[in-house]
Amino acid sequence: MATRIISPKPLVFDHAAQFFTVSDSRFRKLVDGWLEKGLIQEWKGLLVELEAGGHCVPVPYTTKRYVGTNGMRPLMDSIICQSKLVNIVRPCWVSKLEPFNGTWRLTERDEYHGQFDAIVIAHNVSPTYFFLDEEFDYFLKELNCHGKCANRLLSSSGLPLLTKQMKTLELSSIWALLAAFDDPLPIPTIGAFGSFDGAFVKGVNSLSWMGNNTSKLFPLESGKPHCWTFFSTAAYGKQNKVPQENIPNATAERVANEMLEGVESALGLSKGSLEKPFYTRVQLWGAALPTNTPAVACIFDPRGRAGICGDWLLGSSVEAAALSGMALAHHMADYFKTGGTRSDEFAIGLNSTFQAIAGHDIGQFPGLESEKQVKPQACYISETTLFDFA
C-alpha cells in the first residue's frame, strides 16, 4: 500500500494497491474502525473494462470499494502511529539472522540489533522492521522483506522448511507509471455514467490498469492536476525486467513512452496525440503478484519459532494481508501460551504444496468476480501486512 506525494503541488499517487474490498467479517471489524476514525472512505468512482480502441463497459457497483482518505500509505502510517504495541526501526536492513540458545540474534552489518524469542517474515514488502514492546513477556521481530532479502536471510538461518517454502514462491513483475497532466485525459463517456475513474485494460500489452488518483482522493476539489497511475501487464513486466534497485535511465524513458503509447491505444487515440504529462516517474514492482500459492493463511515453524505471513498466501489483496497477519499472530500467541511445548501440534504450512494461479495482471479484485464474471485468482499489489497483536 504505497503512496507517493510530490511537492510542492502536491501531486498524490497511489502506486500500489488502488483500492480494497471486504468479504470477511474479521476484516470488516478493522475496516469499520478505520471508517469511524476517518482513515478511509468509500470510493464510488466509475470503474470500467476498457478494450483497446476506446470501447468500454461499466463494472456494476455492487461491492463497496475503499481507499485511504489521503492515499493508501497514510492509512498504514496512521494505524502504526495509533498503536502502543509496535516500535518501528527505520532505516534498518537486517543482514544477518542467526539462532542463539533458543532465540534469534539480528545484526545489521556489524551493528547488533538485539535478541528475540521469535521472528516473522512478512513477504513481500519494503524492508521495515517491527518488534513488540518490553511490557510483553516475549519479543517478536517482524522482517518485511522482498524475495531476495527473505531468501538471503533464510538460507543461513537453519530453517530448511521455511526456506523451501519461500524459494518455491514465484512472483510476477509489473511496471507502474505515475503521470500528471494539466488537463483531463480524453476519456470516452458512457451515457449517464460520464467518464471513468479507473479502468481494467484489455488487449494492450503495456497496460492493464489506469486510475485517476485526483478524482479518487479529491473528488470535490477542482483545479488540481490530473494524477494517473498506470500499471503494465505481467507479460510486459517480464519482457522488460531489470534490477528494480537500479533502473537504467534509458529503460525508464522507454518504458514510460511505451506505456503512454499503451494509454493512447486503450483510449483509441492516434499515436503521439496524447497530451505530454508534466511529471512522470516509473517504478518496477519486481515482486508484484504471486503466480503460485500454498493457499494457507500463514506458515509457522514452532521448533525454530519463526513464521511467515503475507497477502500472497491467501490471494494478494489488502484483506488477504490482514487475515494472514491475524492468523499468524493468533497462532503464535496460542503457541507461546503453551510455554513452547507440543511443538509438532503448532507446525503449519511447512509442507503445503504450491498451486499455480492465473490472473497475474492488475484487475481481478476480490468481491468483483460476480460483477465481472471472472474467477478471482490474483488481485492488486499490496505492500504491507497488518497484525492484530491484542
What keywords describe this structure?
FAD/NAD(P)-binding domain; 9 helices; 6-stranded mixed β-sheet; 2 domains; 7-stranded mixed β-sheet; disordered C terminus; Polyamine Oxidase, Chain A, domain 2; single chain; 390 residues; alpha+beta; 24% helix
Which CATH architecture of the largest domain would you pick? Answer: Alpha-Beta Complex
Q: What is the number of strand segments? A: 22
Principal-axis shape equals: globular
Give the helix/strand class.
alpha+beta
InterPro entries: FAD/NAD-bd_sf
Notes on the structure:
The chain has 390 residues and is α+β, with helices and mostly antiparallel strands. It folds into 2 domains: 3-76 and 174-285, Alpha-Beta Complex (Polyamine Oxidase, Chain A, domain 2); 83-170 and 290-372, FAD/NAD(P)-binding domain. Helix content is 24%, strand content 26%. The protein contains 9 helices and 22 strands. A hairpin with a 3-residue loop joins β4 and β5 (55-58). Mean pLDDT is 84; it is low at 125-139 and 363-390. InterPro entries: FAD/NAD-bd_sf.
